[in-house]
Amino acid sequence: MTISKKMTTFLEQGSWIRRMFEDGIELKKKYGPDNVFDLSLGNPVFPPPEILYDEMKSLIDNPDKSAHRYMPNAGLDMTRKKVAEFLNKTTNHDFQSRNILMTSGAGGALNVVLKSILDPEDEVVIFTPFFPEYFFYTDNHSGISKIVDSDDKFIPDLNSFDSAINQRTKAVIINSPNNPSGVIYDEKFLIEFSEILKKHENKLQREIFVISDEPYRRIVFDGIDCPNILDFHDNTIVASSFSKDLAIPGERIGYVALSPNIENQNLLMDGVVFANRVLGFVNAPAFMQRAISNILFSSVDIEEYLLRRNFLCDELEKLGYEFVKPEGAFYLFPKSPIEDDVKFTEILKKNKVLVVPGTGFGKKGYFRISFCVDWDSIKGSIYGFKKAIDSID
Ligand SMILES: Cc1ncc(COP(=O)(O)O)c(C=O)c1O
């Protein structure tokens, strides 16, 4: 069997999370599912809110037989309008349906955006620690990821960001609340970040897009404000989804929202709509577009995540782990007690706890714990975390 050399390399590079998933299956077979504590996946275990089922039932009970056909590649007018209204209530901006494209999740959204804006070897800045797929999505569209590191609080280094921008820089992806760190970028950061962009836009005499990847925007803790880059940078494209806040990642529903401040944006909208078609998505799933339209303000109970975060933070702190307390999303990104994070995740695995090494997120020396899992997995993991850290001298 011959596959491309590039794919062979990617299969090696990009498989940390998958590897943990497969190891998990093996371990569960060996020790029984109740004795393995899998904190590796960002796949919420909660059911979606009941109101989603009500909407789905109502669609089935009142069938519209034409509702399963192809539709405009941008999505249903009704859903785009509702998403625009939702954004108008939750931001300081005036979105219209013409600014919205319905997509197959945030992953689909990121791909259609990158396909629309990148020429071969254009650069996309990504900040560590990053959602690993950014690197592959950028490559999908012949772009090059330019990685900029963050400090030990996971705030991107703005001097390095400034130096990283050049004539080939087309876009920068930000993700706040962040996977895997749980960090939220505050207003001061966003202002300084957008000032750097403005300086380079003036120099280059063209826009640099911020692609704001926001599937966790509504999962925030302690009443912390999650400031919006839309308020600071005009050339902002939001990529988002309902995967995490409605706990429906398998349903593949999300959207792209072009900031109303992007000048001459009709061409960009034509581009993302065309990309949605030719990437083979064609249109976002029809049934889900209809099912979510009336419940955009609903979400799973964020309190459930908060309780899990608090429990894990308390317990891990007592055991001597160091970490930045997550302000949002549902991940914790502690420092590995030994320099080699891959080795430490192996030690945890021996103690039947599955997590993902920071190396997979471009940040060696850390590891990611996902707490969108059931209580048994969280509580059961503490003994393994203790044994693992105690085994290090
Ligand atoms: C930061 C980030 N962006 C995008 C995605 C993709 O989300 P979706 O399932 O909506 O495609 C994920 C999923 O885990 C994510 O963590």
N-to-C SSE series? Answer: HHEHHEHEHEHEHEEEHHHEHEEEH
| Portion in helices | 40-55%
CATH class of the largest domain: Alpha Beta
How far is the N terminus from the C terminus?
A: 46 Å
Largest beta sheet: strand ordering: 2-8-7-6-5-3-4
Strand and helix map with partners:
Layout: H1 5-13, H2 16-31, E1 37-38, H3 50-61, H4 77-90, E2 100-103, H5 105-117, E3 123-127, H6 133-140, E4 144-148, H7 158-164, E5 169-174, H8 187-204, E6 209-213, E7 236-241, E8 254-258, H9 266-278, H10 286-292, H11 302-319, E9 331-332, H12 341-350, E10 353-354, E11 356-357, E12 367-370, H13 375-390
Parallel strand pairs: 1-10, 3-4, 3-5, 5-6, 6-7
Antiparallel strand pairs: 2-8, 7-8, 9-12, 11-12
Pyridoxal-5'-phosphate binds at residues 42, 105-107, 131, 175, 179, 213, 215, 241, 243, 249, 254.
Architecture overview:
By secondary structure, the protein is of the alpha/beta class. The protein has 2 domains: 5-48 and 300-390, Aspartate Aminotransferase, domain 1, CATH 3.90.1150; 50-292, 3-Layer(aba) Sandwich (Aspartate Aminotransferase, domain 2). Helix content is 41%, strand content 12%. Strands 2-8-7-6-5-3-4 form a 7-stranded mixed beta sheet, sandwiched between helices. A 3-stranded antiparallel beta sheet has the order 9-12-11. Strand 3 (123-127), helix 6 (133-140) and strand 4 form a beta-alpha-beta unit. The longest helix has 18 residues, at 187-204. The model has no long low-confidence stretch (mean pLDDT 96). Pyridoxal-5'-phosphate binds next to helix 5. The site of pyridoxal-5'-phosphate has 13 residues, from helix 5.
